[in-house]
Write a structure and sequence with these properties.
heterodimer, A: alpha/beta, Methyltransferase, Methionine Synthase (B12-binding Domains), Chain A, domain 1, Rossmann fold, 5-stranded parallel beta sheet, 9 helices, globular, B: Beta-Lactamase, 5-stranded antiparallel beta sheet, 5-stranded mixed beta sheet, 10 strands, 44% helix, rod-shaped, Meth_synthase_dom (chain A), cobalt (chain A), B12-binding domain-containing protein (chain A), metal-binding (chain A), Cobalamin-bd_sf (chain A)
Chain lengths: 219, 248
Amino acid sequence: METVKNFTDVLLDGDQDKAWEYVINEVDKGTSTKDIFFGLLTPAMVEIGQKWQENEISVADEHLATTTCDFTLARYKHEVLLPRIQNKPQDQGRALFFCVEKEEHDLGIRMIAQIFEENGYEVRLMGANLPVEFVLTMAVKWEPDVIGMSASMLKQGERVPSYIQRLMERFEQTELLIGGRFLSLPDQLLDKADDSKVTIIQEGSELSAWMAARVEGGK
Amino acid sequence: MIHLDAMPMPVVIIDHALNIIESSKKTEKLLGHAASFLDWVDDESREKAVRFMQDKHSEKIELNLVTIDGAISLFSVLMTWDDTFATVALQKEDHRLMQLMGKVTEHKRRLEESDMELILKKNELEQSLKRIGELSTAAIELTDEIVLIPLFGDLTVALIHQNQQRILDNIYVKNIDEVIIDLQSVGVMDAAGVEEMIKMIKSFSLFGTACTITGVKPEHAPFLHQVHMIQKLTFINNLEDKLSRIVY
């Protein structure tokens, strides 16, 4: 897709204004938040990771692109999302999101958090690199209905099963969502059919299906 | 030829199959002893290493290497190739960068934590505020027939809404003849709040309960002109007089 390629270059240039133009252009065309996040931002960042693998760019370039994308997301929240959900009830439940310990790739979980907000959830985003103790403390205090965790690197993905175990022991009724790039790596070992309270989300469509099922099931 | 150990940075000699021929002391101290260069490369960087070192003799690539303490670190790998070997210099890239990123993450974490604390405090405050609102309109029974309702705080729609039902129930159940609303401790009022209060007073009159308003301050006056329209409503300027009439 030509737009994705151009957007990728804009991110690599660190051109925040230009990046925003692409996004607002999609908003004006009526493109949904999910389609912008999964169809523009995500493929661009995947492309950037690929470019590093191809020895075309350095990690410094990657950092610049990440910051630019992060800024675009923050702007999306304030200029598009918040006005859209203003005065709408946040009655779909509470959702807590974070990246597992040592995982610094938090763009994905930031996008997910915004999608939940737009869908009427009360959302807390704890960001990158969150040790399980922090999650437990926060979950005890805030009592979320949904906890979503993300890992990108294979090594960090190895921590996910222990997070699931610790959280399931403590919060039997809480829905757990697992996402992130590590799921697509060949060596990852997470058992797919673990429990009815644990859902693995790899594609945007899986998230939509999960949300729809939850609304139908009366939360 | 200069001895490898004399080099100011970790250096290693490899062959075209990436087997390690010789490595400097600095290298072994950093990455440990290995047979193949690939043994030092993090799983997710291995494909890149093969492509740009073995298949194609690049001069510079970035790779994630696993150091002797098990940590994954970013290195710039600089290479000079000849017919059989390559001299490889390793430059740890991420030390300063990671330190900086670590600091940034720390700040971010702190902000997120305080954000979370603020949210929890906000929940608590909202609860307290609601409770205060309820307590702000106590219904004091002066006699069996007369109730005094001193309003505290700002006269807003919310204040009336929070308390209306409780007050009306009270008046209905106890068969109250007269309600005295004291505005002395009301700070700010707005038109919508006054309108809501009027509705409440009209509801009193449906039960046959008369209403007296006292404690009006000069700044309240402009808002209260319309209130005169209601029957069974009187204004008095001094609660004391009224009370003395009740008592005697």
